[in-house]
Amino acid sequence: MKNERRDFLQAAGMAGMFSAVSTAALGQAASGAFTVDPANTSTAEIPAKDHIKFAAIGLDHAHIFGMIAAVQRGGGELVAFHSKDEAQIADFKKRYGDIKLASEEEILNDKSIQLVAGAPIPDLRAPLGVRVMKAGKDYLADKPGITTLEQLALVRKTVKETKRKFAIMYSERLEVRSAVYAGELVKQGAIGRVVQTVNLAPHRVNAPSRPEWFFDKSRYGGILTDIGSHQADQFLYYTNSTKAKVVASQTGNFAWPDKPKFEDFGDMTAVGNGGTGYIRVDWFTPDGLPTWGDGRLFILGTEGYIELRKYVNVATELKGGNHLYIVDKKQARYIDCNKVALPFGPQFVSDIVNRTEIAQDQAQALLAAELVLTAQKNAAKPVLA
């Protein structure tokens, strides 16, 4: 009887939700299958306009492969890499073929190389970036690109002195198609003025695959510094905030008593000159989820709201990720964003060539880092921790 009541309530809830919205408004075909919104029919990536040579230094996080792919889509030619780990070297050569294995000094002294992409252990990323910029090259760091406020101060100083770029790959916005399209909708004024963002970003630990530094806060910077950096970037971007401060934050370790230097939960609230933001991050993705995390973003505007279900739409027939829901004054719509082009790579390569800031605003990228570093430093401990 209990299960029958549950099933009835679930069915009634779904029926009520869909009966309140027209088939056309949902972007639903006559067959019942969800389709791409008519206004969102891009089927190819943005063509590269420029060309640069770049290298990779630091292969400690697999994010380096996504970073390389983005730069290659933009017209980047991978010409060299550096690592001292034999397993990393073998894997890299298997992926990319006969790419030159070089010392860091060789790469930094090669004047033909314009960009270095780096994903070493997090606390080594900012120092590497400083060396790269002082060598006259631009730098693309894996997140978190910076793990202390002292590193941040040095990065800002070096950016100012060298006029080089210290970019950070906030991939949960830059390389997620639904997040890209949400940005376009916000720019178009589809939901009015943005008032608040809410980011929920659970991740899966997958402990057996993690190196020791993953569990050491002094190496990865803490949970807000690390995965929270993605969310701080989104808060600033969607609210168009150029100034912001943290008003509350907390971090804790609930499930790993044998890893005292690890944090598996964190949240923070920030206020900017364009809106407010709430961020929650954790390492609690259960084994039952078919992907690494159920990342969701809610953007509240004065005339509507947007919800992104970035990587999965739990327990529905909508497979995969890049699901966008928008409700405005006229209707409620579902938009499949899987055909939206990713602009970061081509824009970033062109930024390097033309010395522009289309792909990423330098001040905003570093402000996102400042927010999470400040939140991490001042974080309270949850009562149950």
What does this protein look like?
The structure is a single chain. With 385 residues, this protein is α/β, with parallel strands linked by helices. The protein has three domains: 1-25; 52-169, Rossmann fold (3-Layer(aba) Sandwich); 173-343, Dihydrodipicolinate Reductase, domain 2 (2-Layer Sandwich), CATH 3.30.360.10. The protein is built from 14 helices and 14 strands. It has helices at residues 2-19, 23-26, 63-73, 86-96, 104-109, 125-134, 149-162, 171-174, 177-187, 217-220, 223-226, 228-239, 344-354, 362-377; strands at residues 52-59, 76-82, 100-101, 115-119, 138-142, 166-169, 194-202, 244-252, 265-272, 275-282, 296-301, 304-309, 323-327, 332-336. The strands form two sheets. The chain has an eight-stranded mixed beta sheet with strand order 8-9-10-7-11-12-13-14. A hairpin with a 2-residue loop joins strand 11 (296-301) and strand 12. Mean pLDDT is 90; it is low at 1-36.
